[in-house]
Design a protein that fits this description.
heterodimer; A: alpha/beta; B: alpha/beta; eight-stranded parallel beta barrel
C-alpha cells in the first residue's frame, strides 16, 4: 500500500526540493509513498506521515503556521493524540519547543520542552550563522539514524541557523553537533522527531534519514 | 566535530547556458548548468553557486527553469545571484529552489533592500556580494558593474553595514584579482572577515590549490569559491579537499 506524506506548506520558503528529496528517498528505499506539499488540513489529517519544514525567523514561522486556519489543531490531533510519525526540519523543529527567543519571545508548540536561543560559541571568532557541514554526536540510539555513521569520522549534515533548541530534558536530545560548544542537532520524543540540519540538503546522510523516517514505526 | 570549510564551485550562466562550458568529466553537454550541477554534486562540492550574467532582464524565466531543474536533481545548497533587484526577484528564485540569493549592485544602491530582504526571507538566505578593488594600501572600495563603476564606499564599513541590516553571509570578490589566477586578495578577504560576525566566502583569482588554503588560513574565509580551476579540470573537488585537509584545514571528505 502506498503511504501518504504531507509536507506542510505555510509560506515558509521553497518546499519543492524538499518534496523531491522525499520522493527520491522513497524510490531508492522502495517504500511506496505519495508526497503532498499542502496547506490543506484535510490532507494533513489523512496523511500517514507529517513533515513540518521551516526557514526564516521563529516568530515569522509561528505566525505563518497560525495563519493556516485549523492547522495547529489538526497537528495536535493527528500527531499528539493519534501518534502519527512527525518530522520537523530546521525552524520546523524549533517550533516544537516551548518558546522561541529570536527577536521576541514567541510561544512554540510545546511538544519538546525547552527554549530556542541564540548560539553563543565559546570561541568568539566562530561565525554566526552556523552555516555549512558538520558531524553529529549521537546521544542515544534512534531509528531515524539507523545505518548512518555518526561521530567525528561520520557523515556530515548541512546546517544553517543562528538559534538552536535547548531542550529542558536531556532524554529528548538524540544528537548534538559542535559550534564552540554543544548545539542540538536532533531531538525526538515518542512519534515526534526534529532535525536542526536540513536532511533535504544533506546528500547521503539526508536521503538515508528521510528513508528511515518513511519506514519509522514509533 | 567542527564546522568544515566549504568549497563552492561557481557557474556563470548566460541565457540558461554555462559560459565557456564545464570541461571536466564526461558531460554530454558541457554547457548545461543542470548537468554541471549534478557532476559537482557527485564530486562532493559543499555548495553550488550560479551567477546569472544574462544581459536582459526579460530572460529571467530561463534562469528560473535552470534553478528548478537543478534543485530537483541536487540535494545540496544552491546560491543564485546576478540581477537581483527586487523582493519579487528573491521570492521567485527561492520558490524555484534556490537556498540562498546573492545581492550585489542593489545592495550598494539601496541599502534598505538588504534589510527588507532579510526581514522577509530570513538572514540565512541573504548573501551580499561585495566586489572591491584596492585604491590605496590597506583600503578597498566597492565597485559595481563588473568593476567598472567606482562608488567611493570603503569595503569593510560597507560589509559591517550590510551585516547589521541582515546579510547572513558575504561573498567577497577582488576585482583586482578576478581572472588573474594569482590567488585571492588575502588582505581584502581578511579585512572583511575580521570585521563581521557572519561567514565570508573568498572569491576571485584562484590559480592553484594553495590559493584555496590561503583564503582560509590567511584570509580567514569560511568558504572558498572558484570557477575555472574546477570547470577546466585543472583540479577536482576531491583533490582540492585532500590538499586543504593536508594543510590542516577541516574538510568534509566524502
Amino acid at each position: 500500500m502506498t503511504q501518504s506524506v504531507a509536507i506542510i506548506d505555510y509560506g515558509s520558503g521553497n518546499l519543492h526540493s524538499a518534496a523531491k528529496a522525499f520522493e527520491r528517498a522513497a524510490a531508492e528505499s522502495g517504500i511506496a509513498s505519495t508526497v503532498h506539499v499542502t496547506s490543506d488540513t484535510a490532507v494533513v489529517r489523512a496523511a500517514d506521515r507529517i513533515v513540518l519544514p521551516g526557514v526564516g525567523a521563529f516568530a515569522d514561522c509561528r505566525r505563518g503556521l497560525d495563519a493556516v486556519p485549523g492547522m495547529v489543531e489538526v497537528l495536535e490531533e493527528v500527531v499528539r493524540a493519534k501518534g502519527r510519525p512527525f518530522l520537523g526540519i530546521c525552524v520546523g523543529m524549533q517550533l516544537l519547543a516551548s518558546r522561541g527567543l529570536e527577536y521576541t519571545v514567541t510561544e512554540g508548540l510545546g511538544w519538546i520542552a525547552g527554549d530556542v536561543a541564540l548560539i553563543k560559541p565559546r570561541d568568539e571568532s566562530l561565525k554566526i550563522p552556523h552555516m555549512g557541514w558538520n558531524t553529529l554526536h549521537q546521544q542515544q540510539e534512534h531509528p531515524l539514524l539507523a545505518g548512518i555513521e555518526t561521530g567525528p569520522q561520520g557523515l556530515h549534515a548541512y546546517f544553517v541557523h543562528s538559534y538552536a533548541l535547548v531542550p529542558a530534558r536531556a532524554e529528548d536530545v538524540v544528537a548534538l553537533t559542535d559550534h564552540g560548544g554543544p548545539v542540538t542537532a536532533m531531538v525526538a520524543r515518542d512519534n515526534v522527531a526534529g532535525t536542526q540540519f536540513h536532511p533535504e540538503k544533506s546528500q547521503t546522510l539526508g536521503l538515508k534519514l528521510i528513508a528511515n523516517f518513511l519506514g519509522w514505526k514509533p | 566535530m567542527t564546522l568544515k570549510t566549504r568549497i563552492i564551485p561557481c557557474l556563470d550562466v548566460k541565457d540558461g547556458r554555462v559560459v565557456k562550458g564545464v570541461k571536466f568529466l564526461d558531460l554530454v553537454d558541457a554547457g548545461d548548468p543542470v548537468e554541471a550541477a549534478k557532476a559537482y554534486d557527485a564530486a562532493g562540492a559543499d555548495e553550488l553557486c550560479f551567477l546569472d550574467i544574462t544581459a536582459s532582464h526579460e530572460d529571467r524565466g530561463i534562469l528560473l527553469d535552470v534553478v528548478t531543474r537543478t534543485a530537483e536533481a541536487c540535494f545540496m545548497p544552491l546560491t543564485v545571484g546576478g540581477g537581483v533587484r527586487k523582493v519579487e526577484d528573491i521570492r521567485a528564485l527561492l520558490l524555484a529552489g534556490a537556498d540562498k540569493v546573492s545581492i550585489n549592485t542593489a545592495a550598494v544602491t539601496n541599502r534598505q533592500f538588504v534589510k527588507e530582504a532579510a526581514e522577509k526571507f530570513g538572514d540565512q538566505c541573504i548573501v551580499v556580494a561585495i566586489d572591491a578593488k584596492q585604491v590605496t594600501p590597506g583600503r578597498w572600495e566597492i565597485f559595481t558593474h563588473g568593476g567598472r563603476n567606482a562608488t567611493g564606499i570603503e569595503a569593510t564599513a560597507f560589509a559591517r553595514e550590510v551585516v547589521s541590516l541582515g546579510a547572513g553571509e558575504l561573498l567577497v570578490t577582488s576585482m583586482d584579482k578576478d581572472g588573474t589566477k594569482s590567488g585571492y586578495d588575502l588582505g581584502l578577504t581578511r579585512a572583511i572577515a575580521d570585521a563581521v560576525s557572519v561567514p565570508v566566502i573568498a572569491s576571485g583569482g584562484v590559480g592553484d590549490l594553495d590559493d584555496l588554503v590561503a583564503g582560509v588560513s590567511e584570509g580567514h574565509a569560511s568558504a572558498v569559491l572558484a570557477a575555472s580551476i574546477f570547470h577546466f579540470g585543472t583540479y577536482t573537488i576531491g583533490q582540492a579537499k585532500a590538499h586543504m585537509a593536508e594543510a590542516g584545514l577541516r574538510m568534509r571528505l566524502v
